[in-house]
Specification:
The complex is a heterodimer of chains A (273) and B (320). By secondary structure, chain A is an all-alpha fold. Chain A has two domains: 49 residues, no CATH class; 217 residues, MetI-like (MetI-like fold, Orthogonal Bundle). Chain A is built from twelve helices and no strands. The longest helix of chain A has 34 residues. Chain A is globular. Chain B has a single domain, classed as MetI-like fold, CATH 1.10.3720.10. Chain B is built from 15 helices and no strands. The longest helix of chain B has 37 residues. Classes of the chains: A mainly alpha (273), B mainly alpha (320). Chains A and B meet through α1, α3, α4, α5 and α6 of A and α1, α4, α5, α6 and α9 of B.
Chain lengths: 273, 320
């Protein structure tokens, strides 16, 4: 029996390892190139590995301004999305009222709109509203496009916090604010974390919106600014490009890992209703 | 008559989560509080998402542009932009490219590979599963631009290239096969591969969570009855995953419809063979400065997306 088991599972492991290699191999270049001062586009073990690429881009100012811009975009989007979606999700989870069904459909509908196609008319709208070439303009659009899905996620997480707990606290004389702070918030913490990370990453990783909305060099976030490595003068320094790409991708991977346990549950639970 | 469907989540707790309203007065009070709480979120969504959607209707009926006559004072041109689309070979090219990209990279590539991975990873060694899972998920969570540059490096080089050969060409010469300028010779195949690499994790996670809902006893019973792997897949797994599959296909369709960055970074955005509708729309609006015409194309994408989105709600209703 044990032998049969091994025989039947070995092919499965081989298939999985082959698929795994397909996913792993493209990731090798930036890791090896970033610690190689003489990096090219080829994948090679560095002769004298060093962190000089990282040190250079951090000290020569390639990283600072665009990463700060990305942080401003990400954190503002996150704070607004968490607060606004939390507020909106609470009545949707707790109350029964006339417009609720319609609102839920509206939220679902907007959460699935092709966001990218909205950016061209958004630009025209921003020219009229004087919001083009501002970080605020980007943030407002990031928040708006993240909110429908965030509300949907937040409602699903709030639904798992039993209403009886709140009622019991009210009977014991707690105010609505008290119950929110001491009961709902701690129990909904995973949901808040997922919504926060999801909205932060939406803004942090976005390329198209700042490409269209922003023109000033000093406002460009990390995503668009990566093209400065292909400036009009001289050769591309691939080692530094790889180091920059790694630094830029790191927060996304780290934040995702932090909440992945709740993330999958929230996202899939959210998607399937 | 369709079954009455609840919008509440069918979570572990089957109890009604919302208190039953005692009377109309309480209902009205809830409605007022509800609207007050939801007002800021709804306002922002309306202005900055529905706003541009409606705005695109208006601009697409004008000759607005960033330079020339349409820049100073956009003129009302009626349906002229849409008439122009009908005679625009490049638009139909972009449509064909988008459709090919969608079918092969998302509907076939991501969905099938995601389902395969979810099925094969059931009951494997925990450590193995964790490592493999994280590699696949990393490809999904890294920023679009980074994914684009990774694949540029991976596919770099070729027989005539002055650049150092990328890993794929190095592997090719190591196993004595000819090198290729992959992105120039096979642009469509390459962007499809890159998008499968990038997006499969999402389908995998969705299917894995769908599979968790199928009790093991079902498979065991079928196996005892002599059902083979294919029979179990066809008669148990696929029918029970129907809702998950529908949700997955629709969501990856919508996100692929919005794809831009990966292909833009990989191909420089000006290769007709890989010019997605979103890239064409961007070039019309921001490289040829025809905001009106670009918005007309954008509006078409929005309409297709809106129809798919309604379909998505429809599918969820069946599931709820």
């Amino acid at each position: 029996m044990a032998i049969r088991r091994v025989l039947s599972t070995t092919p499965v492991y081989i298939i999985l390892i082959v698929i795994g290699l397909f996913f792993l191999i493209p990731l090798l270049w930036p890791i090896l190139a970033s610690i190689n001062p003489q990096a090219t586009l080829a994948v090679a073990l560095p002769k004298s590995p060093s962190l000089v690429n990282f040190a250079t881009i951090i000290s020569n100012g390639t990283v600072a301004q665009p990463f700060i811009n990305s942080l401003i975009l990400g954190i503002s989007t996150m704070v607004l999305a968490v607060i606004l979606s939390g507020l909106a999700a609470y009545p949707l989870s707790r109350y029964q009222f006339g417009l609720k069904r319609l609102l839920m459909y509206f939220i679902l509908f907007t959460s699935a709109l092709p966001v990218l196609a909205l950016v061209t008319p958004l630009y025209a709208m921003y020219v009229t509203l004087n919001l083009q070439d501002t970080l605020l303009g980007c943030v407002l659009f990031f928040v708006a496009s993240a909110l429908p899905f965030c509300i949907w996620l937040m409602k699903n997480f709030l639904d798992t916090v039993p209403f009886e707990l709140e009622e019991a606290a009210w009977i014991d004389g707690a105010s609505t604010l008290d119950t929110l702070r001491h009961i709902v918030l701690p129990l909904a913490a995973p949901g808040i974390a997922v919504v926060g990370v999801w909205s932060f990453l939406g803004a942090w990783t976005n390329f198209f919106v700042p490409l269209i909305i922003l023109q000033s060099q000093n406002l460009l976030p990390a995503s668009v600014n990566i093209y400065t490595f292909f400036g009009s003068y001289g050769q591309v320094n691939y080692g530094q490009l790889a180091a920059y790409a790694l630094l830029y991708a790191l927060p996304a991977v780290a934040l995702y890992t932090l909440v992945s346990r709740f993330f999958v549950k929230g996202i899939t639970g959210g998607l399937k209703g | 008559m369709q079954k009455e469907i609840q919008l509440e989540t069918p979570l572990e707790t089957r109890r009604p989560l919302t208190p039953v309203p005692q009377n109309n007065q309480r209902r009205n009070k809830h409605m007022r509080t509800g609207i007050l709480f939801m007002a800021p979120a709804l306002l922002i969504t309306l202005v900055f998402m529905i706003g541009p959607a409606l705005w695109s209707v208006y601009i697409s009926l004008t000759n607005m542009s960033l330079t020339g006559a349409g820049a100073a004072s956009p003129q009302w041109v009626g349906l002229q932009n849409f008439a122009q689309i009908l005679h625009d070979g490049e638009f139909f090219n972009a449509f064909r490219v988008s459709l090919t990209y969608l079918v092969f990279s998302a509907l076939i590539g991501q969905a099938v590979l995601g389902l395969l991975l979810a099925l094969l990873m059931r009951k494997r060694n925990r450590v193995f599963k964790a490592i493999l899972g994280s590699i696949i998920v990393v490809a999904w969570v890294i920023p679009d631009v980074v994914a684009g540059f990774l694949w540029s490096a991976f596919l770099a080089g070729g027989p005539q290239s002055v650049l150092a050969p990328g890993l794929l060409n190095t592997i090719m010469s190591a196993i004595a096969l000819p090198q290729h300028a992959w992105l120039q010779q096979y642009p469509m195949t390459m962007i499809i591969m890159a998008n499968i690499w990038r997006g499969t994790a999402f389908s995998m996670l969705l299917y894995a969570s769908g599979l968790e809902g199928i009790p093991d006893e079902l498979f065991e019973a079928a196996a005892i009855d002599g059902a083979g792997v294919w029979a179990r897949l066809r008669n148990i797994t696929l029918p029970l995953l129907r809702g998950t599959i529908a949700t997955d296909l629709l969501l990856i369709t919508l996100s692929t419809l919005s794809d831009f960055t990966l292909v833009f970074v990989l191909t420089g955005g000006s290769n007709l063979n890989t010019e997605l509708m979103t890239i064409y729309q961007y070039r019309q609006a921001f490289q040829f400065y025809q905001i009106g015409y670009g918005s007309a194309i954008a509006l078409l994408i929005i309409v297709v997306g809106a129809i798919l989105s309604l379909l998505y709600i429809r599918i969820l209703r069946v599931e709820l």
